[in-house]
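Fill in residues.
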């Protein structure tokens, strides 16, 4: 009877832990969506990549419509920014830096451009690189505000013509 009770208690504890894990995963997913921040993990040994639902959305995919792969992310990266992104990732992969970050553009299938900020960090093991983890944040709104502030700072509000400061630069 004691063994059966211990087995039952262990099963109940496992079920409670699994339920708590599901709640925490759902909470993290909602937080990522609210903050427009996705996460990803690249296992360097198996070369498998995992994206959060928000990462799919930021890159313009329906969640889980495609198997995550570096080529898919590069395909959505604006052609002018691909070399910079590849260089930053290579720096981390080759161990030149432990982490790296970059602002770049994502080109969506409908032609719209989304600005993103990514940060990647490598985790090493005795045998070498183990996994790279990172975040991807949609900063399009912030970039639009920055562009608008630059416009306001350099142009007359009434006429829309360059102001003195802008005129002096020309």
């Amino acid at each position: 009877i004691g063994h059966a009770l211990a087995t039952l208690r262990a099963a109940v504890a496992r079920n409670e832990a699994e339920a708590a894990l599901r709640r925490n995963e759902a909470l993290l997913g909602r937080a990522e969506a609210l903050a427009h921040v996705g996460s990803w993990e690249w296992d360097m040994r198996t070369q498998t990549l995992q994206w959060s639902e928000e990462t799919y959305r930021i890159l313009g995919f329906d969640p889980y419509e495609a198997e995550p792969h570096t080529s898919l992310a590069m395909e959505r990266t604006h052609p002018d920014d691909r070399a910079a992104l590849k260089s930053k990732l290579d720096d981390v992969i080759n161990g030149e830096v432990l982490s790296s970050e970059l602002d770049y553009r994502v080109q969506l299938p409908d032609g719209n451009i989304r600005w993103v900020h990514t940060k990647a960090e490598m985790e090493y093991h005795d045998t070498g690189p183990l996994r790279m983890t990172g975040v991807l944040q949609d900063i399009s709104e912030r970039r639009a505000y920055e562009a608008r502030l630059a416009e306001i700072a350099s142009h007359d509000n009434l006429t829309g013509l360059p102001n003195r400061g802008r005129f002096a630069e020309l």
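The chain is about 45% helix and 25% strand.
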